[in-house]
Structures are given as C-alpha cells and as structure tokens.
Amino acid sequence: MNATSTSPVTSTPILRRTLLWSAVATLVLAVVGAILGVTLAGTPGLFSALAGIILAAIFLGITGISILIANRWYGDALYVPIFFGAVLGGWLLKFVLFLVVLFVLRGQDWIHPLVFFIAVVVSILVTLVIDVVVLTRSRLPHVSDVTLPTAEDLAAASAADAAEQPHTIEESEPKKPSLGS
C-alpha cells in the first residue's frame, strides 16, 4: 500500500475481536476463579485467583494493544520501526512488570501460591484458545494489505516500456558471442 492509503490494516479487526473476547473471558474466569479460590483456600485463595487472572489479562492485553497502537501509523514511512518499537516496548514493559509483581507478591500472606499459579496458567490457556478460534474464523487473505494496479498504472507502465524499445534493427538484434578471445 502507498502512504496515502486510508484502509485499515487487516490485522486490526482480528486484534480488536481477540481483545474483546479476552476481556469477556477474563470476567468469566474472575467469577469462577473467585468461587474456586474461596472454596479451596479461603480468602487468600480468592485474592490469589483474582490477582493471577488480572495479571495474565494485563500481560496478554499489552501485546494486542501495542500492535493496535502501532497500526495507527500504517502507511507512514516510519511504520515498520514504529511497529517493532511498540511491540518490543510492550515486551520490555511486561518483563519489568513481571519482575516488579514477582518481588511484590513474593512472601505475601494473602497469596496462596498454588491458586495463583493455576489462575495464571488457566487464564493464559483460555486466552490462547481465544486467539486460535478468532484467527481461524477470520477471513484474513494470504497476502494482506495489497492493492492491485489500476488502469492508469498499467497505461503508464506500457508507455514507459514503449519508450524503452530499441528503434533500429541493429539495437534489437542480440549480439553473438565470439568464439575466440
């Protein structure tokens, strides 16, 4: 696509749909996790399940949101560096956030480690299933964001080819290779 294109990137609707379904799944997991957490480990289980589910939702949402933000510059000459900068920045943010959360939550009385771990793992697996389902049901072309040449483009190319054609017979005949050098 050229820099004057106004059509959206084809991954944008897919990412939006994924984020929407992930938000719905997070709400369902929060309710189920809270009930199971309280049942299995009391109040620490409740807080651990909610913390694990929210943490997984935040981490998984950062990537989708960073790509959606970077897609706003699609068609710009700096789109590729902006895209990779946004995605890499999201990964670095998640890494730093993970370390901070790890140090803050370590040894807390209100955290039940097993419930927290299970909540994080289940949240990640549910989100991965959502990603796969949304992607497989989306109609994403094999070659995306491509425009076909217009009649004007073809006419201009034809005129350019005609201008480059040789004008004499000698110029158009291929040169024969010499046998002896």
Automatic annotation (TrEMBL):
- Membrane-spanning ranges: 20-40, 46-70, 82-104, 110-134
Its organism's taxonomic lineage begins at: Bacteria, Bacillati, Actinomycetota, Actinomycetes, Micrococcales
Sorted keywords for this record are:
Membrane, Transmembrane, Transmembrane helix
Residue segments, region Disordered: 157-181
Per the record, where are the segments of Basic and acidic residues compositional bias? Answer: 167-181
User: What name has this protein been given in UniProt?
Assistant: ATP synthase protein I
